[in-house]
Amino acid sequence: MDGNGRWAEQRGLPRTDGHTAGEQALFEVLDGADELGVGWFTVYAFSTENWRRPVEEVEFLLRFNEEIMLGRQEELHERNIRIRFIGRRDRRVPRRLVRRMEEAVALTRDNTGLTFTIAFNYGGRAELVDAVQRIVDAGTKRVSEKTIARNLYDPEMPDPDLVIRTSGEYRVSNFLLWELAYSELVFSEALWPDFGRQHLYTAIKEFQDRDRRYGGIVDPGESIG
Ligand code: FPP
Q1: Is 4 in the pocket of ligand 1 (CB under 6 A)?
Q2: Beta strand pairing call for 82-86 and 40-47
Q3: In angstroms, what is the span from residue 35 Cα to ligand 1's centroid?
Q4: Is residue 204 part of a domain?
Q5: Which of 10, 81, 160, 167 pairs as cysteine with 3 (C-beta 3.0–4.6 A)?
Q6: Per-residue pLDDT reduced to its tens digit, 92-125
Q7: Cβ(19) to ligand 1 under 6 A?
Q8: Whole-angstrom Cα distance, residue 137 to residue 131?
């Protein structure tokens, strides 16, 4: 959800107003994805690098995420959406926010619709470090790709088919490093608060026109063997 700060700066507003506008975009795009029947929808809400921002912005984002959880969980629950989190639970994440996250997860645990995963205090490298640490702690001697995958923050989360990066930046920025090995990447010039349902449709259309070969010659979906 990149470009909130620039969206606000372009309007002479504080950066935090960009995040507030980003909330509207998020729930508009989530609606669009849900209507299309997307099963798993993951957003990068706060990265392990975002702690380096000015303290006022960090504090705003922590409170903002808590308020979104409080304000939206009932509505998401009524829509049969399952909420999950990926990321590191270190001491910097306030206990109250962790409790809110746990409440939202517990409330929506048995829902069978779209899974809405929020990457919070998330970093792809941190996820791999944490996975390796767990494997070492368990005394595992032989490690396979499955061992790593089973020790990621959410072992049930499928690898994403499509990753969308907004705001004209062409980087992965430490997002889902293991999981996006074969994802299709779509880049949009739109700043996140301007990204809407139509942009989602355009990105999905671009995804559908791609030829996915996973290192082989044909898409496994078309393969005969
Ligand atoms: C990046 O824009 C955006 C963020 C750091 C936060 C976005 C978070 C939300 C919209 C709320 C999500 C919350 C939940 C609970 C799902 P930026 O500040 O990096 O923009 P810039 O690159 O223009 O500076």
Answers
A1: yes
A2: unpaired
A3: 24
A4: yes
A5: 167
A6: 999 999 999 999 999 999 999 999 999 999 999 9
A7: yes
A8: 10
Q: 115 lies in which domain range?
A: 4-208
CA distance linking residue 14 with residue 7, whole number of Å = 10
Specify if 42 maps to a domain.
yes
Hey, which of 19, 60, 63, 67 would you mutate to test ligand 1's pocket, going by the most ligand atoms within 8 Å of its Cβ?
A: 19
* pLDDT for residue 222 is more than 70: no
Is 111 labeled as catalytic in the residue annotation?
A: no
What integer is the mean pLDDT of 153-162? 98
- Domain assignment of residue 9, yes or no: yes
Write down the pLDDT at residue 6: 98
Residue 225 falls inside a structural domain: no
Q: Whose CA is nearest to atom 14 of ligand 1?
A: 65
Rounded to an integer, what distance in angstroms lies between the CA atom of residue 41 and that of residue 29? 10
Q: Encode 129-175 in three state secondary structure.
A: HHHHHHHHHCCCCCCCHHHHHHCCCCCCCCCCCEEEECCCCCCCCCC
- List the CATH number of the domain containing 81: 3.40.1180.10
Total domains in the chain come to: 1
DSSP result, 15-71: HHHHHHHHHHHHHHHHHHHHHHT-SEEEEEEEETTGGGS-HHHHHHHHHHHHHHHHH
**2 assigned to active site:** yes
